[in-house]
Write a structure and sequence with these properties.
This protein is an alpha/beta fold. It contains 13 helices and 11 strands.
Length: about 300
């Protein structure tokens, strides 16, 4: 059966919708920051207010996909926050109630494969290619080829929300907190190296690094000096290692209110963007990448493509 289709990516920090027509052309793409992961790292349970915000957003998205003629070709996939929550059934029941459909939790490995599928074909980079997907609760690192085949991947308990909640408590963060954040990134990357080695690959073998998701695209927008978020200009832009280091230093030195005033900053991202920047700059520095290439295409694109 052909026709329009929709995918919803329920992330730890944001929820996104992509609706495409029967040829795969975009009809609409929307994003709302709901911070579903709020408190999950500490309590293991979903926060009531965060869950309500998230379900309200999904209910609104249902109206959007129905306006575009989508009926049952919808995939609603949840990632780190729901994976980690012991009361995740509350989320599933809420989604069934408001949409009549079942949501699913995808594994870190599938999340990584979808991110690679969406990003690797969307930007020009040599092979093998590394893709980094920095979410709110987890970070996926993938190495693969231009044919879309994943050679190795890892999903780390490391994201902009999780890192901020764990160690970046002050506003702005203290030097001690920043040092602790960088140590935590290094520890998680030690784990990544071991897991990727078991799969016969290494990030140092990648010809380039492609970055996806809100942290990376926002950093791209800031690097370009945009006054507002402009997807067409952000997609494919290149942020050098030196520029990323400078941008990270600016973000960690600023307060949340100061970051909120930066032109392309989406409301709700200002208090965690510095955590995501620490993760990205740590990866770029550790593996010697000269730059990160920003892609607007990511696991959401991979999700909707899976509905063919």
């Amino acid at each position: 059966m052909r026709g329009p289709r929709a995918a919803v990516d329920v992330g730890s920090n944001s929820i996104r919708l992509l609706v495409v027509d029967e040829e795969g052309r975009r009809l609409t793409r929307e994003m709302a920051i709901t911070r579903l992961a709020a408190g999950v790292d500490a309590t293991g349970r979903l926060d009531d207010a965060a869950l309500e915000r998230s379900l309200t957003t999904i209910a609104a998205y249902r109206q959007v996909w129905e306006r575009h003629g989508v009926t049952d070709r919808v995939r609603i996939a949840a990632t780190s926050a729901v994976r980690d929550a012991e009361d995740r059934e509350r989320f599933f029941a809420g989604v069934r109630d408001i949409t009549g459909m079942d949501a699913e939790v995808i594994s870190g490995e599938e999340e990584a494969a979808l991110a690679f599928s969406g990003a690797a074909r969307a930007v020009e980079v040599g092979a093998p290619t590394a893709v980094i997907d920095i979410g709110g609760g987890s970070t996926e690192l993938v190495v693969g080829g231009h044919d879309g085949r994943v050679l190795g991947s890892v999903s780390l308990q490391l994201g902009c929300v999780r890192l901020t909640e764990r160690v970046l408590h002050d506003d702005p963060s203290t030097s001690g907190q920043l040092a602790a954040a960088r140590r935590l990134v290094d520890e998680r990357l030690d784990e990544a190296d071991e897991l990727l080695e078991q799969q016969g690959v290494a990030l140092t073998e990648a010809a380039g690094l492609v970055g996806v998701a809100g942290t990376v695209t926002t950093l791209g927008a800031l690097h370009l000096g945009l006054e507002a978020y402009e997807e067409a200009r952000i997609h494919g832009c290149r942020v050098s290692a030196a520029a990323l280091e400078d941008l990270t230093a600016q973000l960690v030195a600023a307060t949340s209110s100061e970051r909120a005033q930066m032109g392309p900053m989406q409301p709700g991202r200002e208090d965690v963007i510095h955590g995501g920047a620490i993760v990205l700059s740590g990866v770029v520095a550790r593996y010697g990448f000269a730059e990160v290439i920003v892609s607007e295409a990511d696991n959401l694109d991979g999700l909707v493509a899976s509905l063919t």
